[in-house]
């Protein structure tokens, strides 16, 4: 038998070779209830994963044995009955540990990524193994996969078009004038999933956070292909300039919304970047938008996957800033209505209602607040894992520990990603109606991000003074006449909703 995990759902997981199953090999999928008992996941995420698994089982028909069990181990024992079982390399350290303890199970190489782990290890070892910059890796992947290349050089002579992709939202606009994102239609399988989740909650067997409205993200290969086509044909052209911008009434902007689809294995990253490059070569999208999209997938997504395995399990315990505060209940419960700060209330409500926001609200609103408050990076990682439809351990561990919370002390990124309210004000329309003012550090209207930024630098000034990218604002601390007031104010604010 060949065992498919719930994030190995595309056709590229069934092609023969390198540990893949033969065309007649019986298949197995296990729906383990214990996964939902261990963590309090977002309800929309639970719905999406179960819907995708059950849809894939329905497509595969008699070839697959679909087992609903308490644990993976129980499901495997029931279905395999001593027969040898193959499986592709799972996507988490915990799943790999499990597979290695199961008798008769053989693990093959990972699929669904552009670079084999062994190749990355050679590249990383050649760069000293510690400061592995994403930009260097991205260029290496571009060369190796001939992505946006003109011979040995990048097309148009530039590797990185980030400078063209940092525009604030258009003035006075409440939304980008782009085609709407693809939205799937629910079916009987979705109804069955929702019924089961309702029953499990009523029985007290599991508990969720967030809301489960109509499913917003693809659960089948056909839906995934339609979503990719819709993005490339109607949204990609406007993606680049505004990929870092935020609008309160337009949370999706021109983003692809393909992260959960890729992470379920419904799309292969190669087909996504090749489709985008073809759009540029055919004159359907500008280079800065296409390069920005390719960078997200062949650069950042691939990089995060690789460093998750290269850094190993000890990376989870990184805590260079020694942050240890627990997450407050209003945050853990996605209680956006308790928050007054408009940017945080808006973004937290988006997570509550959909299980998704794009990368800038994650990094510069949610992650920045957690960093400024000094919350335990392991708890923040777990929260992102549970509360986002595209959240998996391999995704969130490097993104949160390495980038968002700077808990690895600069092993992945060159500076802490946090800012005052001025950044949010420049890149969004979220500050205008807020009760706080981005320019105020103290007083009734003091922006919690502005005050929090200076309080964060003050707490860690000794460590950050040696960092070239933040040394200048650290030196400015001594010129802030109201710094004692900021310290006292932010200490008193604590973890109460801002």
From TrEMBL:
Which Pfam families does the entry link to? DPRP (PF04244)
Which branch of life, at top level?
Answer: Bacteria
Q: Which InterPro entries match?
A: Crypto/Photolyase_FAD-like_sf, PhrB-like, Rossmann-like_a/b/a_fold, UV-DNA_repair_photolyase
SUPFAM superfamilies, per the entry:
Cryptochrome/photolyase FAD-binding domain
Q: What is this protein called?
A: Cryptochrome/photolyase family protein
